[in-house]
Amino acid sequence: MRGDALDFYLALGYYRMQQELFTCHFVPFDGRLYTAHWLRLTMSRIAWGPEQRRLLRRNARFSAAVRPFRLTEEYEELYTRYRAAITFDAAPTIEAVLLGGEAHNVFNTYAIELRDGDRLIAVGIFDHGERTLAGILNFYDPAYRQFSLGKYLLLLKTDHARRLRLDYYYPGYVVHNYPKFDYKLFACPAATEVYDSVSGLWVPYSRETVAAQSAELLADWLPEDLRGMA
C-alpha cells in the first residue's frame, strides 16, 4: 500500500486488521457493547511530562533498535509467553494478527526490538505511511512486567515518528467506560486528538468529548435490536 493512501485512510478513522483496513464504532466486551474512539497524536505538540521522562530514564538500560519487520521464531516465542500471561483475548500468533494466512505483507511494516543484553524482551510493530505512523501491536516478556514496556514502546514509537518529522502517530482506539485501552493516552494527552465519526473531524481529546461522542453514537447509530447490549 502506498504511504499516502495509508495516510488518507488513517485520517478517516480506518485501521489495519491483517492485510486489510477497517473501521468500527462499537466493540463487544463481556456481553456488552461499548463505543470505540480512534486516536492520533500530533507530533508537533509532543512534550514529555514527568511520568514519561521517569519511564524513559528507568528503561534507558535496555537497547532499542528499529528494523524492517520480519516474522521470526524469536518473535513468535516471545508473543506466546506474552499471550499466556495477559487477561484479555488476543490472536493466537503474530502471523494471525498481521498476515492472516496471506503470503505477502502489503503494508510498510517495521518493528522496534527491545533487548536486555542479548535477550529479546519486547517488540513494538508499526506501519509507516508517507507522513504518518500507525501502531499495530506491542508484546513483551512477562518477567519484565514491572518496567511498563507496553507504555515504553508507545513512547518509543512516538519518539521515532517525531524524529522522522512525521505529522501524526495513530495508536488505535480507546473505549468509553472500558479503561483497558487508556494506556494509549500515556504519551501526551495534550497532543492527542480523537476522531468524531459523526462530523468526520479530529478534535482535541478529553474524557468529556469522548463521553459526548459515545452518547451520540449510542442514541443515533446503534441499531434498535442491539441497544439492550449497551
Question: Which short descriptors sum up this protein?
Answer:
6 helices, alpha+beta, 230 residues, 11 strands, nine-stranded mixed beta sheet, Aminopeptidase
Spell the H/E element sequence. HEEEEHEHHEEEHEEEH
Low-confidence stretches: none
Under the CATH scheme, the architecture is: 3-Layer(aba) Sandwich
CATH fold-level topology? Aminopeptidase
The main pleated sheet reads as: 9 strands, mixed
Number of strands: 11
CATH class call: Alpha Beta
Task: Return the average pLDDT rounded to an integer.
Answer: 93
Strand content bin: 25-35%
Please tell me the total number of domains: 1
User: Helix amount, in percent?
Assistant: 25-40%
Radius of gyration: 18 Å
Number of helices: 6
Shape: globular
Tell me the CATH superfamily: Gcn5-related N-acetyltransferase (GNAT)
Helix and strand content put the structural class at alpha+beta
Termini separation: 36 Å
What features would you describe in this structure?
This is Arginine-tRNA-protein transferase. The protein has about 230 residues and is of the alpha+beta class. The chain has helices at about 5-10, 50-60, 75-85, 95-100, 150-165, 205-220; strands at about 15, 20, 25-30, 30-40, 65-70, 110-115, 120-130, 130-140, 170-175, 190-195, 200-205. It has one domain (about 5-220): Aminopeptidase (3-Layer(aba) Sandwich). The protein has six helices and eleven strands. The radius of gyration is 18 Å and the shape is globular. The mean pLDDT is about 95.
Please give the structural blueprint.
Elements: H1 3-10, E1 15-17, E2 20-22, E3 26-29, E4 32-42, H2 50-58, E5 63-68, H3 73-85, H4 94-98, E6 109-116, E7 119-128, E8 132-140, H5 149-163, E9 168-175, E10 192-196, E11 201-204, H6 207-220
Parallel strand pairs: 8-9
Antiparallel strand pairs: 1-2, 3-4, 4-9, 4-10, 5-6, 6-7, 7-8, 10-11
